[in-house]
């Protein structure tokens, strides 16, 4: 029987385990942490159940495809969000609701942006064309080399070329008049872990995926249900997951990996190895590749780091919805300075998810389950997080004021994770939340490949290899790597 080891149980690793087990491989997953899921994880504390990282799913048809590829229907129950989210601007009492329905959206912004429906329609049609012209040709393709990638890119209609050279901000700036609307349309850049002033305009395709194509979905019972459903199936297929086991080096190798070594000196071997550990830093730290030395890794573009707070609160906070953004003033000034600074932001911008708004089981009765995510500099810029309580208090006090509810006096449980915790728990390079950034020179064949350059049985899956970061993307990544393995090793 063909054997495979997957290093890491993030969504990319688990999805690959499903696909390979279905193809007849005997699969073992080795996981450093004590629980599966990677960033898609769970925190249980004092009767509250928090989603640790991701809080929404998009492109849900990729999740369907994953289960369908092994012959079963998607067992995860999803519910589309409408409105998608609300945005609180500093100094404005009333939040703005973001609707997929453009007539409703126009009404919401009637006082500041005339003809919003028509403008948005043009904007989204343009983004849709780019999305559909690249989804299959570029995003869902394996490339053997840069030339092949460039040839595939050359089949994308030339009219999209200017998109590559403009930033997301300039794209929204030329479409909309009001600062608020521009900011709202550019917020999706943060989902890529970057600011809109540094993100190419091509990623306005994310506006299309959120507002027209497939929307945002929540998972009934919390995001971790996705992992739980996959684990049930893996268990029934005989896939073994071994926890608290970190791969720290290679034993014997000779053109292929014969042995992996864990932190206790135990040796592991299989026909095929798939690393779900970060595809760039694994090459540097575990394989000792010069192109991925610490100096070179530090020069690459990494996505912003997460500073996350999990709060169990007594009482109901009526002003919160499932997804909420709290923004300050001077958006550009903030985005340009804060993410390369060693000082915590004084007026932080942050996102709040309240799972208890839709999932009563995530908090005791009459209580609210609150997750706060504040994007911050990674550990290259700020590695001292001894001020974490100060930053958390600053955010919590600001939130209290803006939702008109005394949160500090009603906290039943609290947990804070800094970029140091994210880095140490899941081996995220310098605490970067979404892995390698998506600049033009770090996507496609310019992103670390899902097939190793030297070792013939080593492959990669997940956020820092192709196609990129986010839950649907790492599911696509598992499909691409499985296709590679099948093609390369038909005869095993
Ligand atoms: C705060 C936050 C919020 C997010 N929100 C969203 C969202 O709402 N929607 C969305 O689509 N995406 C979101 N993302 C992005 C999404 O979580 C990631 O893109 C995705 O989960 C990455 O999955 P992955 O398979 O690459 O691996 P990971 O989740 O990184 O898992 C890799 C696993 O490998 C293990 N590992 C690493 N090295 C080793 C080793 N040497 N030996 C053994 N095990 C090892 C780690 O412990 C980890 O469990 C968010 C990310 C963060 C951090």
Please outline the helices and strands.
Elements lengths: L2 E5 L3 H12 L3 E5 L11 E4 L2 E4 L9 H8 L9 E3 L4 E5 L6 E3 L3 H7 L7 H24 L6 H8 L7 H5 L2 H8 L3 H8 L18 H9 L3 E3 L4 H13 L3 E3 L4 E4 L9 E3 L4 E2 L3 E4 L3 H7 L8 H6 L5 E10 L8 E5 L3 H7 L12 E5 L12 E10 L11 H16 L7 E7 L1 H8 L31 E3 L10 H18 L4
Parallel strand pairs: 1-2, 1-13, 2-9, 6-15, 13-19
Antiparallel strand pairs: 3-4, 5-8, 6-7, 10-11, 11-12, 14-17, 14-18, 15-16, 16-17
Bound molecules: flavin-adenine dinucleotide (FAD).
The site of flavin-adenine dinucleotide has 35 residues, from helix 1, strand 14 and helix 16.
Structure commentary:
With 492 residues, the protein is α/β, with parallel strands linked by helices. Among the domains are: 3-34 and 243-298 and 438-488, FAD/NAD(P)-binding domain; 101-214, Guanine Nucleotide Dissociation Inhibitor, domain 1 (Orthogonal Bundle), CATH 1.10.405. The protein is 33% helix and 18% strand. The protein has 16 helices and 19 strands. The chain has helices at residues 11-22, 61-68, 102-108, 116-139, 146-153, 161-165, 168-175, 179-186, 205-213, 224-236, 279-285, 294-299, 331-337, 388-403, 419-426, 471-488, and strands at residues 3-7, 26-30, 42-45, 48-51, 78-80, 85-89, 96-98, 217-219, 240-242, 247-250, 260-262, 267-268, 272-275, 305-314, 323-327, 350-354, 367-376, 411-417, 458-460. The strands form five sheets. The chain has a seven-stranded mixed beta sheet with strand order 7-6-15-16-17-14-18. A five-stranded parallel beta sheet has the order 9-2-1-13-19, with helices on one face. The chain has a three-stranded antiparallel beta sheet with strand order 10-11-12, with no helix packed on it. A hairpin with a 2-residue loop joins β3 (42-45) and β4 (48-51). α3 (102-108) packs across α4 (116-139) and α7 runs antiparallel to α8 (179-186). The longest helix has 24 residues, at 116-139. Flavin-adenine dinucleotide binds at residues 7-13, 30-33, 38-40, 53-56, 246-247, 276-277, 306, 308, 373, 426-427, 433-434, 462-463, 469-471, 474.
